[in-house]
Design brief:
- By secondary structure, the chain is an alpha+beta fold.
- The protein folds into three domains: 31-178, Ubiquitin-like (UB roll), CATH 3.10.20; 188-580, 2-Layer Sandwich (Creatine Kinase, Chain A, domain 2); 595-725, Up-down Bundle (Four Helix Bundle (Hemerythrin (Met), subunit A)), CATH 1.20.120.1560.
- It has 25 helices and 17 strands.
- The longest helix is centred in the last third of the chain and has 55 residues, at 582-636.
- It is globular, with a radius of gyration of 29 Å.
- Bound molecules: adenosine-5'-diphosphate and magnesium ion.
- Residues 215, 342, 472 line the site of magnesium ion.
């Protein structure tokens, strides 16, 4: 067997579960011990500072320089008590992931020594030289300054003896260069708009929070096998590899016993999560072999997203202690399920009501239907945009493929809500007047059995499903920053809520009763957004045709999907909700196209190298062994007998030559397609060229390599095979 592969396979299969340092205390003792939360604030800050800071956090107010100094002082003492020497502003650039620049606490003391120093100024604002972060042309390279500023709504935490300060990242002129800034703007917009509408039903409501519960799917691969696959190392996915004879067809992995090595990793990871205040809650095997999931208890969206980003980097680190590599790519292996990150999303009032939860009284249920109808209308109006918000070069392998949500956004509601929708939609004006005139309404709305809703048949094919008291946006990719989806969704819903409020107010002014006005508007929304509602099988071809007829966005080319951000209705929506200016939208799309191109470009280079320098040489070597053998057989036997004996080999040799010829030819074609694309000025057109010309060539190359894998002597094949990578013992 190829030496490297053999060594890797052996190393991986000999590996035992790594030991885990289990804390002596129970989780409640060490939970959030590395977070400067209110408990620590109370301990380390003067009472007055504590009061002012928590007031500012609760009321979303800026803090003064004086207050910042006092906070920084307490924070520094806490950090030093915990062995910390450095601090960093921690932000979420458009490249994805997180960025940090570490500084030591030390300052000159003027006497030739140093003092440990951390002022409010350093806490609140910094100017990282950020010219090398993508900005889509907003900030010219010579104007290198970008500001990072503390997001006081997200607590400071310690990782690797470093104090991490969650920050937003903006340009000198105030444009967002990150994911957090627009997310906070969208959350504010939805808070304001939803509060107004919630107050139709309950005057006590002061704020509405957006909640996010993500479910992170991932693959684990042994590090030795990973290291022997240049494609995994460089691109996060296998660019070639024939399906294993056994993969997920027996459905024996899902909820199966967790292998001991993996269980040790999960436990270790959970302990780390809990120390950092990430409420990791659920873990299990996923559908594909080596695929797993971690889900926390849901939290306020901004915090939940910080926690997801932190988790993703934490996973990579903890995995190393267990000789694993975590694959967050949406489709690391062909032929088996890819990984997503379901975004469970809901809105809830500061009075403790979940707004997508049916209640006990008719009024509560009218509120419930109001919010459901508003979400449906927003998702309908912006279905193309929502798809754009989850699209990427990597997620493209999932969407539209047979296992994942289709590349069409629709909403699954389940039967009970579908029935109510139908009844509301078909109700007459007279009915609505009587219903709205009374305090109560009785359209089945009043009798929604809560328990039934919780068990709503889980339609796994829907990209956006109602699941009891929340919506589940399932099309989000496993490696994505959830903020992208959460920005688009919360902003779109905020816009719809604002419109709803305006329309209801106008009706009430015309002396309609409030509930009648609400019912009328809900009915209007339902009728208008009917096309988005689909409870059937999202994978079927019928649905594609039907969705097209319904006018839903069916574009599948990712670079073109991004156009949705620049549609007039998107620009208007983002502008009115204050989430993005048109300039920001344009700049961010440039970054999206550029990132798309770069991802494919890297993959294409790696594939070209593997094809020509790893696969073709090995196949040629094996082929010449066959040729050699054939020639020898022919010298041993009379012509007719010799021909008969070698007929099968001849055909193998011929087919191998054909595969290799196509591989060389297609690699040549792929390189030329790249050269041509690289010469294109416009980022959008370049990305389209990569999508249209480079990607298909890559797929053809892979097809022929996978065929060769089945023909070449197993001992000679250079790369670990799927069956060797996919089954951790
Ligand atoms: P499933 O895989 O069946 O969808 P999980 O238990 O794996 O369910 O994940 C459900 C996720 O949804 C968890 O993160 C949970 O905290 C979250 N969740 C539950 N209720 C809400 C809600 N009202 N808003 C947001 N997220 C929620
Ligand atoms: Mg789920």
């Amino acid at each position: 067997m190829s030496l490297l592969r053999f060594k890797a396979v052996k190393e991986a299969s000999d590996r035992k579960a790594a030991p885990v340092e289990i804390p002596a205390e129970r989780p409640e003792r060490y939970y959030a011990e590395k977070v400067f939360n209110r408990e620590k604030m109370f301990e380390y800050l003067p009472k007055k500072t504590y009061d002012q800071l928590t007031y500012a956090i609760d009321n979303k107010q800026p803090i003064s320089r004086e207050l910042a100094d006092s906070v920084a002082d307490g924070m520094k003492r806490w950090a030093i008590d915990n062995g910390v020497r450095h601090y960093t502003h921690w932000f979420h650039p458009l490249t994805g992931g997180t960025a940090e620049k570490h500084d030591a606490f030390i300052e000159h003391d003027g006497k030739g020594g140093v003092v440990e120093e951390f002022s409010g100024k350093l806490l609140v604002q910094q100017e990282p030289d950020a010219s090398s972060f993508p900005n889509g042309g907003i900030r010219n390279t010579f104007e290198a300054r970008g500001y990072s500023a503390w997001d006081i709504s997200s607590p400071v935490f310690i990782v690797n003896e470093t104090l991490c300060i969650p920050t937003i990242f903006i340009s000198y002129t105030g444009e967002s260069l990150d994911f957090k800034t627009p997310l906070l703007r969208a959350l504010n917009a939805v808070d304001e708009a939803a509060t107004e509408v919630a107050r139709f039903f309950d005057k006590e409501v002061r704020h509405v929070h957006s909640y996010l519960g993500w479910e992170q799917e991932y693959f684990l691969v042994d590090e030795a096998l990973y290291a022997a696959r240049p494609d995994l190392v460089m691109t996060g996915r296998t660019l070639m590899g024939h399906e294993s004879a056994k993969n997920q067809q027996l459905e024996d992995h899902y909820f199966g016993a967790i292998p001991s090595r993996v269980a040790a990793f999960m436990l270790d990871l959970e302990i780390e999560c809990h120390r950092l205040g990430i409420p990791a809650h659920t873990r299990h095997n996923e559908v594909a072999p080596n695929q797993f999931e971690l889900a926390p208890i849901f939290e306020e969206t901004n915090l939940a997203n910080d926690h997801n980003l932190l988790l993703m980097s934490l996973m990579a680190e903890v995995a190393k202690r267990h000789n694993f590599r975590v694959l967050l790519h949406e489709k690391p292996f062909a032929g088996i399920n890819g990984s997503g990150k379901h975004n469970n999303w809901s809105l809830g009032t500061d009075t403790g009501t979940l707004l997508f939860s049916p209640g006990k009284t008719p009024r509560e249920n009218l509120r419930f239907m109001t919010f459901v109808a508003i979400v449906m209308a927003a998702v309908h109006r912006h279905n193309a945009l929502l798809k754009a918000s989850i699209s990427s070069a990597t997620n493209a392998h999932r969407l539209g493929a047979n296992e994942a949500p289709p590349a069409i956004i629709s909403i699954f509601t389940g039967k009970q809500i579908a029935d109510i929708i139908t009844r509301l939609e078909n109700s007459t004006e007279d009915e609505l007047i009587t219903l709205g005139g009374k305090e109560g309404i009785d359209m089945g709305v009043a009798q929604i059995p809560e328990i039934m809703l919780d068990n709503t048949d889980r339609n796994r094919t829907s990209p956006f499903a109602f699941t009891g008291n929340r919506f589940e946006f399932r099309a989000v990719g496993s490696s994505a920053n959830c903020a992208s989806a959460m920005i688009a969704l919360n902003a779109a819903v905020a816009e719809q809520l604002r419109e709803f409020k305006k329309n209801v107010d106008a009706r009430v002014e015309r002396e309609e009763s409030l509930y009648h006005a609400i019912l009328e508007e809900v009915k209007k929304l339902i009728t208008k957004s009917k096309a988005i509602h689909f409870d059937g099988n999202g994978y079927s071809d019928d649905w594609k045709a039907e969705a097209e007829r319904r006018g839903l966005d069916c574009e599948t080319s990712v670079p073109k999907i991004f156009d949705a951000y620049l549609r007039p209705e998107s620009v208007k929506m983002f502008g009115e909700t204050g989430v993005f200016s048109e300039l920001e939208l344009k700049a961010r799309n440039e970054v999206k196209w550029e990132t798309y191109t770069k991802k494919i470009q890297i993959e294409a280079r790696v594939l070209g190298d593997l094809a020509i320098n790893h696969i073709v040489p090995v196949a040629t070597r094996y082929q010449s062994i066959l040729v050699d053998n054939m020639v020898k057989l022919k010298t041993l036997f009379p012509v007719a007998k010799g021909n008969a004996l070698t007929a099968a080999d001849l055909s193998t040799i011929e087919r191998m030559s054909e595969h290799m010829a196509v591989i060389k030819e297609e690699t040549e074609r792929m390189i030329n397609a790249r050269k041509k694309a690289n010469a294109i000025e416009s980022e959008r057109e370049k990305a389209i060229a990569y999508h249209d010309n480079v990607v298909p060539a890559m797929e053809r190359i892979r097809y022929h390599i996978d065929k060769l894998e089945l023909m070449v002597d197993n001992e000679m094949w250079p790369l670990p095979k799927y069956r060797e990578m996919l089954f951790i013992r």
